[in-house]
Structures are given as structure tokens and as C-alpha cells.
Model the fold of this input.
Amino acid sequence: MERQKRLMLACPPTNINELLEGMGVPPFVPTVDHTLTQCVDCRADVWIGPNQRAAASRAPQTCLVLCMACALAEQHKRGGGVVGHLGGGNGRPRLPG
Ligand SMILES: [Zn+2]
Done:
């Protein structure tokens, strides 16, 4: 499938909270259901959520797992469009230690 037509799965990179520091948004806390994977473009480590992982494993040829930064760049290249949100975000937080 053409890259342009693939579903973008925008995942927060592991340094998301450093990137967002001072922007007034709540910190991102991965849940126990998130796992680490890599952005296909820049190979950054990203947290992939359970719904995104399910989409990616159901149809690997139609998905693009990207970090937020690469997803924005890809979106720009496509001339806009919406980065889909697959819901979730209410899982049990993965606490340090
Ligand atoms: Zn990336």
C-alpha cells in the first residue's frame, strides 16, 4: 500500500514529557498496557497503546507507526488531515519503580 494512504499511528516518544515541558499540558504517563516500539522513520523509542498495537498487528501493511514528531511531518507532507485517535487513555498508569 502507498505510504500516503497508510493509517498513521502517532505514538508518544519516551522523552515526550521533556518535549512538552513548559507547555502547560499534563504529563504523559504510559499505562501498563503500553509497550515500547520504534518509530519507523527515525527509530525513536515510542510508547504504543493497546489499540494502536492491535491495529498495527491486524494490518501491518496499512499502518505506519510514527513518533509524534514524524507523524506531524507526515501529516504536513500529506497537506493536513487528521491523525486518528483510537480511544483508550484510561488504563492503569505504569508507575516508576
Ligand atoms: Zn520519528
Summary: The pocket of zinc ion is lined by residues 39, 41-42, 44, 66-67, 69-70 (CB under 6 Å). Residues 3-77 form one domain. Helices lie at 16-19, 50-58, 68-77.
